[in-house]
Amino acid sequence: MKSITVESLAEQFGLEILTGADCLGREITQGRTHRPGLEFIGYFDYFPMEQIQILGKKEITYLHQLGEDERQIRIGNVVKYHPPCFIVTGGQEGLQYLMKYCTEEGIPLLRTAEKTTEFIDKLNAYLTSVLAPEMTIHGVCMNIFGVGVLIRGKSGAGKSETAHTLIGRGHRLIADDLVVLKKISSQTILGTHNIVNKEFLALRSIGLLNVVRVYGRKAFQEETRIALDIELTKWEDQELNNDIIIEQKSSEYLGVKIPHVEIQLQPGRDIAGLIEAAANNWYLMQQGYSAADEFFSRIQELNGRKTNEFRMK
Q: Do strands 147-153 and 33-34 pair parallel, antiparallel, or not at all (unpaired)?
Protein backbone atom coordinates (compact mmCIF):
# COMPACT_ATOMS: atom_id res chain seq x y z
CA MET A 1 0.00 0.00 0.00
CA LYS A 2 1.29 3.44 -0.95
CA SER A 3 1.82 5.99 1.78
CA ILE A 4 3.26 9.42 2.52
CA THR A 5 4.49 10.86 5.80
CA VAL A 6 2.94 13.67 7.80
CA GLU A 7 6.23 15.51 7.36
CA SER A 8 6.01 15.45 3.55
CA LEU A 9 2.39 16.61 3.76
CA ALA A 10 3.38 19.52 6.02
CA GLU A 11 6.10 20.55 3.58
CA GLN A 12 3.77 20.25 0.57
CA PHE A 13 1.13 22.56 2.06
CA GLY A 14 3.35 24.73 4.27
CA LEU A 15 1.56 23.63 7.45
CA GLU A 16 2.51 25.05 10.83
CA ILE A 17 3.57 22.36 13.31
CA LEU A 18 1.96 23.08 16.67
CA THR A 19 3.03 19.85 18.36
CA GLY A 20 4.35 16.41 17.51
CA ALA A 21 7.46 17.48 15.61
CA ASP A 22 9.09 14.20 16.64
CA CYS A 23 6.15 12.18 15.27
CA LEU A 24 6.11 13.52 11.70
CA GLY A 25 7.21 10.14 10.36
CA ARG A 26 3.67 8.78 10.88
CA GLU A 27 2.28 7.37 7.63
CA ILE A 28 -0.83 8.48 5.76
CA THR A 29 -2.40 5.74 3.62
CA GLN A 30 -5.93 7.01 2.95
CA GLY A 31 -6.81 9.32 0.09
CA ARG A 32 -9.60 11.16 1.92
CA THR A 33 -9.89 13.40 5.00
CA HIS A 34 -12.49 13.45 7.78
CA ARG A 35 -14.09 16.07 10.05
CA PRO A 36 -14.77 14.46 13.45
CA GLY A 37 -18.06 16.17 14.28
CA LEU A 38 -20.17 13.16 15.28
CA GLU A 39 -17.20 11.63 17.08
CA PHE A 40 -16.92 14.62 19.42
CA ILE A 41 -20.48 13.95 20.61
CA GLY A 42 -19.79 10.25 21.17
CA TYR A 43 -20.82 8.50 17.93
CA PHE A 44 -17.94 6.33 16.69
CA ASP A 45 -19.62 3.83 14.36
CA TYR A 46 -17.74 3.90 11.03
CA PHE A 47 -15.11 6.32 12.36
CA PRO A 48 -12.32 6.43 9.72
CA MET A 49 -9.42 6.49 12.14
CA GLU A 50 -6.84 6.00 9.36
CA GLN A 51 -7.76 9.32 7.75
CA ILE A 52 -6.42 12.80 8.48
CA GLN A 53 -8.76 14.60 10.88
CA ILE A 54 -9.67 18.17 9.90
CA LEU A 55 -10.82 20.60 12.59
CA GLY A 56 -12.66 23.55 11.10
CA LYS A 57 -14.40 26.49 12.74
CA LYS A 58 -17.44 24.42 13.73
CA GLU A 59 -15.40 21.74 15.50
CA ILE A 60 -13.08 24.15 17.31
CA THR A 61 -15.96 26.47 18.35
CA TYR A 62 -17.79 23.47 19.80
CA LEU A 63 -14.71 22.42 21.79
CA HIS A 64 -14.15 25.97 23.05
CA GLN A 65 -17.66 26.03 24.50
CA LEU A 66 -17.24 22.86 26.55
CA GLY A 67 -16.19 22.79 30.17
CA GLU A 68 -12.70 21.50 30.92
CA ASP A 69 -13.83 18.08 32.13
CA GLU A 70 -16.29 17.61 29.28
CA ARG A 71 -13.69 18.74 26.73
CA GLN A 72 -11.16 16.26 28.07
CA ILE A 73 -13.65 13.43 27.57
CA ARG A 74 -14.64 14.52 24.06
CA ILE A 75 -11.10 15.02 22.82
CA GLY A 76 -9.77 12.00 24.65
CA ASN A 77 -12.32 9.74 22.97
CA VAL A 78 -11.02 10.82 19.55
CA VAL A 79 -7.25 10.96 20.10
CA LYS A 80 -7.17 7.47 21.60
CA TYR A 81 -7.78 6.11 18.07
CA HIS A 82 -4.45 7.65 16.99
CA PRO A 83 -5.29 9.10 13.55
CA PRO A 84 -2.23 10.11 11.46
CA CYS A 85 -2.60 13.77 12.42
CA PHE A 86 -4.99 16.63 13.15
CA ILE A 87 -5.06 19.76 10.99
CA VAL A 88 -6.73 22.94 12.24
CA THR A 89 -7.93 25.25 9.46
CA GLY A 90 -8.61 28.99 9.35
CA GLY A 91 -5.61 29.85 11.52
CA GLN A 92 -7.71 29.34 14.66
CA GLU A 93 -6.12 29.96 18.04
CA GLY A 94 -6.64 29.00 21.68
CA LEU A 95 -5.58 25.41 21.05
CA GLN A 96 -3.46 24.79 24.15
CA TYR A 97 -5.76 22.09 25.45
CA LEU A 98 -5.75 20.32 22.06
CA MET A 99 -1.95 20.53 21.92
CA LYS A 100 -1.81 18.93 25.36
CA TYR A 101 -3.84 15.87 24.40
CA CYS A 102 -2.04 15.42 21.05
CA THR A 103 1.34 15.65 22.79
CA GLU A 104 0.32 13.00 25.31
CA GLU A 105 -0.77 10.60 22.53
CA GLY A 106 2.10 11.40 20.15
CA ILE A 107 -0.14 12.75 17.37
CA PRO A 108 1.05 15.69 15.21
CA LEU A 109 -1.16 18.77 15.40
CA LEU A 110 -0.82 21.06 12.38
CA ARG A 111 -2.41 24.35 11.37
CA THR A 112 -3.16 26.22 8.16
CA ALA A 113 -4.57 29.70 7.57
CA GLU A 114 -6.69 28.45 4.63
CA LYS A 115 -10.46 28.14 4.81
CA THR A 116 -11.76 24.68 5.67
CA THR A 117 -13.63 23.75 2.49
CA GLU A 118 -10.96 25.11 0.15
CA PHE A 119 -8.19 23.34 2.04
CA ILE A 120 -10.07 20.03 2.18
CA ASP A 121 -10.68 20.13 -1.59
CA LYS A 122 -6.99 20.70 -2.31
CA LEU A 123 -5.83 18.14 0.23
CA ASN A 124 -8.22 15.43 -0.99
CA ALA A 125 -7.15 16.00 -4.58
CA TYR A 126 -3.50 15.77 -3.60
CA LEU A 127 -3.97 12.61 -1.52
CA THR A 128 -6.01 10.95 -4.27
CA SER A 129 -3.21 11.58 -6.73
CA VAL A 130 -0.18 10.58 -4.64
CA LEU A 131 -1.82 7.54 -3.02
CA ALA A 132 -3.60 6.21 -6.11
CA PRO A 133 -2.71 2.67 -7.27
CA GLU A 134 -0.42 2.94 -10.26
CA MET A 135 1.43 1.01 -12.92
CA THR A 136 3.91 1.82 -15.68
CA ILE A 137 3.51 0.76 -19.31
CA HIS A 138 5.62 1.12 -22.44
CA GLY A 139 4.09 3.57 -24.88
CA VAL A 140 3.21 7.20 -25.49
CA CYS A 141 0.48 9.27 -23.87
CA MET A 142 -1.05 12.26 -25.66
CA ASN A 143 -3.91 14.69 -25.21
CA ILE A 144 -5.67 14.96 -28.57
CA PHE A 145 -8.55 17.42 -28.92
CA GLY A 146 -8.93 17.20 -25.14
CA VAL A 147 -9.08 13.38 -25.25
CA GLY A 148 -6.44 11.34 -23.39
CA VAL A 149 -4.94 8.70 -25.68
CA LEU A 150 -2.47 5.89 -25.07
CA ILE A 151 -0.42 4.89 -28.12
CA ARG A 152 1.12 1.45 -27.80
CA GLY A 153 2.99 -0.94 -30.06
CA LYS A 154 6.18 -2.94 -30.37
CA SER A 155 9.54 -1.22 -30.29
CA GLY A 156 10.16 0.49 -33.63
CA ALA A 157 6.46 0.72 -34.53
CA GLY A 158 6.70 4.50 -34.78
CA LYS A 159 4.94 5.58 -31.59
CA SER A 160 7.24 8.49 -30.85
CA GLU A 161 7.38 9.59 -34.49
CA THR A 162 3.56 9.60 -34.57
CA ALA A 163 3.54 11.62 -31.36
CA HIS A 164 5.90 14.13 -32.97
CA THR A 165 3.53 14.52 -35.90
CA LEU A 166 0.60 15.02 -33.54
CA ILE A 167 2.53 17.68 -31.58
CA GLY A 168 3.13 19.46 -34.87
CA ARG A 169 -0.64 19.49 -35.39
CA GLY A 170 -1.20 21.25 -32.08
CA HIS A 171 -1.74 18.33 -29.68
CA ARG A 172 0.01 17.80 -26.36
CA LEU A 173 2.53 15.26 -25.13
CA ILE A 174 2.00 13.74 -21.68
CA ALA A 175 4.74 11.08 -21.62
CA ASP A 176 6.96 9.21 -24.04
CA ASP A 177 8.40 5.70 -23.69
CA LEU A 178 7.22 5.12 -20.09
CA VAL A 179 3.70 6.14 -19.13
CA VAL A 180 2.57 6.12 -15.51
CA LEU A 181 -1.09 5.16 -15.09
CA LYS A 182 -2.92 6.10 -11.88
CA LYS A 183 -6.34 4.84 -10.82
CA ILE A 184 -8.07 7.77 -9.13
CA SER A 185 -11.58 6.28 -9.11
CA SER A 186 -13.33 3.05 -10.07
CA GLN A 187 -13.82 4.38 -13.61
CA THR A 188 -10.94 6.82 -14.07
CA ILE A 189 -7.32 6.28 -15.11
CA LEU A 190 -4.91 9.20 -15.33
CA GLY A 191 -1.83 9.08 -17.55
CA THR A 192 1.28 11.04 -16.57
CA HIS A 193 5.08 11.02 -16.80
CA ASN A 194 7.61 9.58 -14.34
CA ILE A 195 9.33 12.95 -13.71
CA VAL A 196 12.53 11.81 -15.45
CA ASN A 197 10.92 11.77 -18.91
CA LYS A 198 8.86 14.93 -18.35
CA GLU A 199 8.72 17.02 -21.58
CA PHE A 200 11.11 14.65 -23.43
CA LEU A 201 10.38 12.88 -26.71
CA ALA A 202 12.85 10.29 -28.05
CA LEU A 203 13.09 10.08 -31.85
CA ARG A 204 15.13 7.47 -33.68
CA SER A 205 17.99 9.02 -35.70
CA ILE A 206 17.39 12.37 -33.99
CA GLY A 207 17.71 11.70 -30.25
CA LEU A 208 15.99 13.43 -27.36
CA LEU A 209 13.84 16.50 -27.89
CA ASN A 210 12.53 18.76 -25.15
CA VAL A 211 9.15 19.54 -26.70
CA VAL A 212 8.59 22.61 -24.52
CA ARG A 213 11.92 24.15 -25.59
CA VAL A 214 11.32 23.29 -29.25
CA TYR A 215 7.56 23.84 -29.65
CA GLY A 216 6.55 25.92 -26.63
CA ARG A 217 4.55 25.30 -23.46
CA LYS A 218 1.41 24.34 -25.42
CA ALA A 219 3.16 21.16 -26.59
CA PHE A 220 3.16 19.56 -23.13
CA GLN A 221 0.61 18.67 -20.45
CA GLU A 222 1.24 17.17 -16.99
CA GLU A 223 -1.52 14.54 -17.03
CA THR A 224 -4.71 13.51 -18.78
CA ARG A 225 -7.64 11.21 -18.22
CA ILE A 226 -7.20 8.14 -20.44
CA ALA A 227 -10.15 7.68 -22.79
CA LEU A 228 -8.65 5.60 -25.63
CA ASP A 229 -6.06 2.85 -25.92
CA ILE A 230 -4.64 2.73 -29.46
CA GLU A 231 -2.33 -0.07 -30.53
CA LEU A 232 -0.12 0.18 -33.61
CA THR A 233 0.25 -3.29 -35.14
CA LYS A 234 1.87 -4.96 -38.12
CA TRP A 235 -0.05 -4.84 -41.39
CA GLU A 236 -1.82 -8.10 -42.15
CA ASP A 237 -3.33 -8.72 -45.58
CA GLN A 238 -7.03 -9.54 -45.56
CA GLU A 239 -7.29 -8.39 -41.94
CA LEU A 240 -8.71 -4.93 -42.55
CA ASN A 241 -12.11 -4.34 -44.07
CA ASN A 242 -14.58 -1.54 -44.57
CA ASP A 243 -17.23 -2.66 -42.11
CA ILE A 244 -19.56 0.18 -41.19
CA ILE A 245 -19.73 -0.99 -37.59
CA ILE A 246 -16.47 -2.04 -35.95
CA GLU A 247 -16.74 -4.31 -32.93
CA GLN A 248 -15.87 -2.33 -29.81
CA LYS A 249 -12.93 -3.82 -27.93
CA SER A 250 -11.38 -2.77 -24.65
CA SER A 251 -8.15 -2.97 -22.68
CA GLU A 252 -7.98 -3.18 -18.90
CA TYR A 253 -5.63 -1.24 -16.66
CA LEU A 254 -5.81 -1.47 -12.86
CA GLY A 255 -9.27 -2.96 -13.18
CA VAL A 256 -10.63 -0.16 -15.39
CA LYS A 257 -11.69 -0.93 -18.98
CA ILE A 258 -10.57 1.50 -21.69
CA PRO A 259 -11.90 1.43 -25.30
CA HIS A 260 -9.27 -0.19 -27.55
CA VAL A 261 -8.57 0.60 -31.21
CA GLU A 262 -6.08 -1.27 -33.41
CA ILE A 263 -4.42 0.59 -36.26
CA GLN A 264 -2.36 -1.48 -38.69
CA LEU A 265 0.80 0.07 -40.08
CA GLN A 266 1.62 0.41 -43.75
CA PRO A 267 3.74 2.92 -45.69
CA GLY A 268 1.58 5.82 -46.78
CA ARG A 269 -1.08 5.50 -44.08
CA ASP A 270 -1.69 8.72 -42.15
CA ILE A 271 -1.41 7.20 -38.68
CA ALA A 272 -1.58 10.56 -36.91
CA GLY A 273 -4.71 11.44 -38.88
CA LEU A 274 -6.33 8.11 -38.00
CA ILE A 275 -5.59 8.68 -34.30
CA GLU A 276 -7.19 12.14 -34.55
CA ALA A 277 -10.23 10.54 -36.20
CA ALA A 278 -10.47 7.94 -33.44
CA ALA A 279 -10.33 10.64 -30.75
CA ASN A 280 -12.98 12.76 -32.47
CA ASN A 281 -15.22 9.75 -33.01
CA TRP A 282 -14.93 8.75 -29.33
CA TYR A 283 -15.91 12.27 -28.29
CA LEU A 284 -18.99 12.26 -30.54
CA MET A 285 -20.04 8.87 -29.17
CA GLN A 286 -19.87 10.31 -25.65
CA GLN A 287 -22.30 12.98 -26.83
CA GLY A 288 -24.70 10.27 -27.99
CA TYR A 289 -23.94 10.49 -31.72
CA SER A 290 -23.24 7.44 -33.90
CA ALA A 291 -22.30 7.89 -37.56
CA ALA A 292 -23.39 4.28 -38.24
CA ASP A 293 -26.82 4.90 -36.71
CA GLU A 294 -27.30 8.01 -38.83
CA PHE A 295 -26.15 6.12 -41.94
CA PHE A 296 -28.65 3.29 -41.39
CA SER A 297 -31.36 5.82 -40.59
CA ARG A 298 -30.82 7.41 -44.00
CA ILE A 299 -31.03 4.01 -45.69
CA GLN A 300 -34.30 3.24 -43.90
CA GLU A 301 -35.67 6.64 -44.85
CA LEU A 302 -34.67 6.10 -48.48
CA ASN A 303 -36.24 2.61 -48.55
CA GLY A 304 -39.39 4.04 -47.00
CA ARG A 305 -39.66 6.63 -49.77
CA LYS A 306 -39.21 3.99 -52.45
CA THR A 307 -41.91 1.82 -50.85
CA ASN A 308 -44.35 4.72 -50.77
CA GLU A 309 -43.59 5.58 -54.39
CA PHE A 310 -44.22 1.97 -55.40
CA ARG A 311 -47.59 1.93 -53.61
CA MET A 312 -48.64 5.17 -55.25
CA LYS A 313 -47.97 3.63 -58.66
A: unpaired
Based on the residue annotation, tell me whether 182 is a catalytic residue of this protein.
Answer: no
Mean pLDDT value across residues 16-23? 95
Q: Given 57, 82, 138, 249, which residue is catalytic? A: 138
Q: What percent of the chain has pLDDT over 70?
A: 94
159, 171, 182, 193: the active-site residue = 159
Domains of the chain: residue spans and CATH: 4-130 (3.40.1390.20), 134-292 (3.40.50.300)
- More reliable by pLDDT, 116 or 306: 116
Mean pLDDT taken over the chain: 92
Known active-site residue 138:
yes
Please confirm, yes or no, whether 159 is among the known catalytic residues. Answer: yes
272-299: per-residue pLDDT in tens?
999 999 999 999 999 999 888 888 888 8
- Cα-based distances in Å from 192 to 87, 116, 139, 174, 199: 30, 29, 12, 6, 11
The one-letter amino acid at 134: E
Query: pLDDT digits over 45-81, tens only?
Result: 999 999 999 999 999 999 999 998 998 899 999 999 9
Name the catalytic one among 122, 177, 198, 260. 177
